Amino acid sequence: MTYILVNKNKEGREASLRETLNKVFNRELKEDEIKTCPDIHILDIEEKNSIGIEDIKDFLIEMRYKPFQEGIQAGIIKEAQKLTQQAQNALLKTLEETTKYSVYILPVDNEKNLLATIRSRGRVIYSQNKNYEPEEKLDIQNILENDLYNKFLVAEKYSADKDSSLKLISNFEEYFKKKLELDIKNGNIGSSRTFAETLKNLQKSRDKIIANCNRRLVLESIMLQLNA
User: Fold this and answer.
1) CATH architecture type of domain 2-126
2) Is residue 215 helix, strand or coil?
3) Over residues 208-215, mean pLDDT
4) Cα radius of gyration (the chain)
5) For residue 104, what is the DSSP state?
6) CA nearest 118: which of 128, 127, 126, 108?
7) What is the CB neighbour count within 10 angstroms for residue 204?
8) Any idea where the domains of the chain sit in the sequence?
9) Fewest CB atoms within 10 A around its CB: which of 66, 80, 124, 158?
10) What is the mean pLDDT of the chain?
11) Is the pTM of this model over 0.85?
């Protein structure tokens, strides 16, 4: 079984992870127990911007054997949005053939940062932030109204790391989805097709970021398309 825990907030993902582990092991796990239990395997690479295929191969070696202490073992890939496309493809076969005593948990900021084939093989769980401040939304309208020079400055700023780049793309997607829904509701077929095409291009850009293409060039390309 694979669980995909979706929450934009890192603390929210951690809370959802603890809740899911408690359900998987059918008891309340203490914080130190999560870190020391021989049947909980965690891939957590905070210092890197991406999780590569070699990281996944090493992680899957830990999951080859049957549980040592519990009736089930859990494999956790924290910050799953950092998985490269190659790493996700390497993980896919394992998720397709998950044994009855193995569970995989993928906390992620946005399920679209995972390949559709990964999402189709897991149970997607959306959690709400309770005691955390909501993430500040970008003023997309203001960005779109800027000239190309200032748009490129935005691209430069958000290309600093993968998470920032994906955050910018997610905000663009949310903005144009609302535009598309409104146009469909009002019967504006022409512009709705334009918005639908824009969303397709944004998804392609997201895939390029996940595949570790040059982030700045990808974001600048988006700005050029939106400036046309």
Assistant:
1) 3-Layer(aba) Sandwich (3.40)
2) helix
3) 90
4) 19
5) E
6) 108
7) 12
8) 2-126, 140-227
9) 66
10) 88
11) no
Q: Which two tokens stand for residue 118?
A: 């990964």
Lay out the sheet containing 123-126: strands in order across.
40-43, 73-77, 102-108, 2-6, 123-126
| Sequence-distant (≥ 6) Cβ neighbours of residue 78 within 8 angstroms | 13, 17, 42, 43, 44, 107
Q: Which two tokens stand for residue 133?
A: 């401040």
The sign one gets for the Cα dihedral 106, 92, 47, 161 is: negative
Could you read off the pLDDT of 164-183 as tens digits, one per residue?
899 899 899 989 988 888 87
Contact 56, 22 (CB under 8 A): no
Q: Bridge partners of 83?
A: 51
Beta-carbon contacts of 104 under 8 Å, excluding residues fewer than 6 positions away, are 1, 2, 3, 74, 75, 76, 77, 94, 95, 98, 122
CB 84 within 8 A of CB 49: no
- Record the tokens describing residue 40, joined without a space: 């909980």
